[in-house]
Amino acid sequence: MKPGKGEQKQRLGELLVEHGLINTNQLKEALKRQVQVGGQIGSILVEMGFITVDELLDFLSRQLGVPSANLFKLDVPPEVLRLLPVEKIKSMKVVPLALDDNSVTLAMVNPSDMVSLSEIEFSLGKKVQPVVVPAVQMEAAIKSLTSSPEQGLKGAVLEKEAEKAEVRKAPDLFSLLRYLVDSPATDMLLTAGVPPSLKIHNDIVRTSMASLTPRDCERYAREMMSPSDWEAFVRKGDKDFAVTYPEMGRFRVSVYKQRNSVSVAIRHIAEIVPTLEELMLPGWLKDFALKPQGLILVAGPAGHGKTTTVAAMIDIINTYRRCNIVTLEDPIEYLHKHKNSNVNQREVGLDTESFHEGLKRIFRQYPDVIVIGELRDTESFEIALQAADTGHLVLCTVHSNNSTTAIERVINMFPHHQQNLIRSKLADTLLLVLSQRLVPLKEGDGRVLAYEKLINSYRIKNLIREEKTHQIRSQMQTGTEEFSSIDSALADLYKAGLITFEDGLLYAENEQFYREMAEAE
Predict the structure, then answer these.
(1) Cα dist. 352→225, 233, 356 in Å?
(2) Is the pLDDT reported for residue 352 higher than 60?
(3) Cα-based torsion angle of the residue sequence 142, 144, 146, 150 in order, rounded to the nearest 10 degrees
(4) Structural domain ending residue among the three candidates 269, 303, 336
(5) CA 320 to CA 323: how far, in whole Å?
(6) Residue 81's domain is classified under what CATH number?
(7) One domain, residues 368 and 497
(8) For residue 215, is it within any domain?
(9) Is 298 in contact with 306 (CB distance < 8 Å)?
(10) CA 200, 206, 207, 212: dihedral to nearest 10 degrees?
(11) Domain-located, residue 480
(12) Domain tally for the chain?
């Protein structure tokens, strides 16, 4: 008993998995796509970028014991195509490719279809030599023959028409950006093989759009990049930049290569810099933003609002001080207008080669305030410490789980023999570490800020110098003027009915302490 049509399609996918040409997850994604749009599983795998046309044809040829053909690389003259009526070509899904005295070479999606083979051999009076072709190429060929049978088949023309058909399946770039702007999402993720996805409250939510092809993702990336940016991306494999569309706003974009295709992450950036109140940040942060010198670290994982917090602090300085502000950002997200201060925003990769190169000459630019988008290397942090120690206010972001690990991470950037000196300099120059998390609201869309503060008091300075930073948490967990933990902030948000207990537990540093604080009356 022969397997049904659906079983044959799935069996091909299973065979490709068995032979290591695709993996199980890729097959699952392709089968989902097949349910949405129909079609042959092999062509869907090619469309989604999981396998190449040549790999598929080689595999089918070996499995079926017949040669294969790539219609996009062949030209077939009209006289050969006239061997079969167009209606028969359409109904049987076959295309004659070549003719000699004794046989006809026939392109077929299913060369095991003995009924069609026998019927064609009988009508032509010649032996048929079947070759296997992908379903998507057969559809393109039949469409071309239906519209202009007298012109024959040109492989290059077929391929272009198939590309155009693929492009029409995917939304245009502006439609996707508008969708992101109108949604509650922070980011849109474009990856071959799945529909455009939104990041809402740190969860991935796939849209109901069609799955994207590698060509779709490359097209979106190219549209947002200049030719020189595209060339740089092709060389390096990734590129971060920001782009502005007047009708929709500003977007931060990260383009990168994965599995021989292009993926794109897009974040919509608000045009107006939010205030401390809008961000639910404490009012006392303004006093630190207006300090004449020292170091402020804003810590937390990626995607938890560090850049937005720093932008709000820059806006405070820009409003209340008359000074020269120089920023180093990768890329520039919030665009600051000059108010009482001059704001000079430099983008890494565009205005300067790197954070380190930008900082090497920063003192010649006579800054009063220096903003470093992210501390990434020892040289940059050495300059940041020097600036904070010589009359400048320095604002930096750093990836870390909490305020105390932020300090240790910075110190551990340096070789062991330098760490005591760095501890001493850090103890002298540090003003504040603000560590933050964005936690999903219990009701409605959006997230709420939970923050941990570490103010560098006389007591904290001594703990940093004496390599006892870890004691800050244990000695001051219940809260002091200089330290309040993220666990206390999460417990307060839970007791205020803003977040669920489970979400608070997810972001807590000390689960037991959080439980005790959340359950306390």
Answers:
(1) 18, 17, 9
(2) yes
(3) -120
(4) 269
(5) 9
(6) 3.30.300.160
(7) yes
(8) yes
(9) yes
(10) 130
(11) yes
(12) 3
Assess contact for 129 and 33: CB atoms under 8 A.
Answer: no
Helix (H) or strand (E) holding 481: none
* One domain, residues 501 and 443: yes
Residue 397 has pLDDT above 50, yes or no: yes
Would you say residue 45 lies in a domain? no
Q: What is the CATH number of the domain that holds 192?
A: 3.30.450.90
On whether both 334 and 477 belong to a single domain, the answer is yes
Q: Beta strands 447-455 and 430-440: pairing type?
A: antiparallel
Three-class SS of residue 388?
Answer: helix
Mean predicted confidence (pLDDT) in 156-167: 72
User: Taking the mean position of all CA atoms in its chain, how far away is CA 48?
Assistant: 18
* Pairwise CA distance, residues 236 & 230, whole Å: 10
Over range 158-162, report the average pLDDT. Answer: 78
What region does 193 belong to: left with phi over 0, alpha with psi -120 to 50, or beta? Answer: left
Whether residue 160 sits in one domain with residue 178? no
Strand partners, 299: 398, 435
What is the rounded average pLDDT of the residues 62-84?
88
Same-domain status, 241 and 291 = no
Residue with tokens 């022969």: 2
Residue 345 has pLDDT above 80, yes or no: yes
Q: Percent helix, strand and coil across the chain, each rounded to 5? A: 45, 20, 30
With beta carbons less than 8 A apart as the criterion, state whether 435 and 406 touch.
Answer: yes
Q: What is the pLDDT of residue 240?
A: 87
The reply to whether 311 and 232 lie within a common domain is no
Q: Which amino acid is at 411?
A: I
Whether 175 and 163 share a structural domain: no
Closest CA to 220 of 267, 167, 182, 149: 167
Q: Tens digits of per-residue pLDDT, 278-323?
A: 899 999 999 999 999 999 999 998 878 899 999 999 999 999 999 9
For residue 407, the Cα-to-chain-centroid distance in whole angstroms is 29
- Which DSSP category does 101 fall into? S
Nearest to 208 by CA among 196, 217, 191, 222: 196
Domain check: are 306 and 455 in the same one?
Answer: yes
Residue 247: count of CB within 10 angstroms of its CB: 8
Mark which of 142, 167, 192 sits at the end of a domain. Answer: 167
Give the three-state DSSP class for 506. helix
Question: What residues make up the domain containing 135?
Answer: 52-167
> Quick check: is 18 in a domain?
no
